[in-house]
Design goal:
This protein has 7 helices and 6 strands. By secondary structure, the chain is of the alpha+beta class. It has 2 domains: about 160 residues, Four Helix Bundle (Hemerythrin (Met), subunit A); about 60 residues, Nonspecific Lipid-transfer Protein, Chain A (2-Layer Sandwich), CATH 3.30.1050. Helix 1 runs antiparallel to helix 4, helix 1 runs parallel beside helix 5 and helix 6 packs across helix 7. The longest helix is centred in the N-terminal third of the chain and has 29 residues. The protein is globular. Pfam families: MDMPI_C, MDMPI_N. GO terms for molecular function: isomerase activity. Keywords: Isomerase. This is Maleylpyruvate isomerase family mycothiol-dependent enzyme.
């Protein structure tokens, strides 16, 4: 008999998997709307061309696949051996030909999804380590992937923006960011979404009250601009670092 907690975990995992798969489709559409020459154009990430964003997201899929392998086999398989290894993997992917880069992206995404589909249910609670070295249950890596593909689809800088992201993604993203800020001691902001029943994030006693639509707040908090965002202190500040 499935307990209420187990049923909740299954439901949450399935809904997050759906978000990740929708995000993968969204990223894929944005990628395939780019011409070969446009892959060399600027992304929204400082110093990175679009092709580097694609290589990064492909590398992320392989890294999360390694965590799924760890959970499945019980043999430690970290996301990356080191920061240098991570950077080298992204750099190698970024110099591929346009067709090979698209194939790398598609293959990495398909392989990760296959690993997820074939994983025994009881392995989703297995402990692994994320890229920051924190111990997490494997199931948390699904949301890590979801936010990766949704945000970086916008970073491809080809027309998509945070308004295109589902409300659930925006809400979870803001909660994540504010939680990181609070844990690090950057608790100086209270965020209120003006289009989401005035839902707020952060401390009620924060010095600065920042308002905007849910999408505008998420973009600002994630370091993707301040359009539409208003601060009670006057000039809108640069959001604290997130990751």
């Amino acid at each position: 008999m499935i307990t209420p907690r187990e049923a909740f975990d299954v439901s949450t995992r399935q809904s997050t998997l759906a978000l990740a798969r929708r995000g993968t489709e969204f990223f894929d559409r944005e990628l395939h709307a780019l011409t070969d020459d446009e892959l060399d154009g600027d992304s929204l990430l400082p110093g990175w061309a679009r092709r580097q964003v694609v290589a990064h997201v492909a590398s992320n899929a392989r890294a999360l696949g390694r965590l799924a392998q760890w959970a499945d086999t019980g043999i430690e398989t970290v996301m990356y051996a080191s920061l240098e290894a991570r950077n080298a993997e992204i750099a190698a992917g970024s110099i591929l030909s346009p067709d090979a880069l698209r194939e790398s992206w598609a293959g990495s995404a398909a392989d990760l999804d296959h690993r997820w589909q074939s994983l025994p249910v009881n392995r989703w609670s297995a402990s692994v380590r994320n890229g920051q070295g924190a111990t997490i249950p494997l199931r948390d890596s699904i949301w890590m992937r979801a936010r990766e593909v949704w945000i970086h689809a916008v970073d491809l800088n080809h027309g998509a923006d945070f308004e295109d992201l589902p409300g659930e993604v925006l809400t979870r993203l803001l909660r994540d960011i504010v939680e990181v800020w609070t844990a690090r001691g950057d608790a100086g902001y209270r965020l209120t979404a003006t289009d989401s029943a005035n839902e707020s994030y952060g401390s009620a006693t924060a010095v600065a009250h920042v308002t905007g639509s849910l999408a505008e707040l998420a973009a600002w908090a994630a370091g993707r601009g301040s359009n539409g965002v208003v601060s009670s202190t006057g000039e809108t500040p640069v959001a604290p670092r997130w990751l």
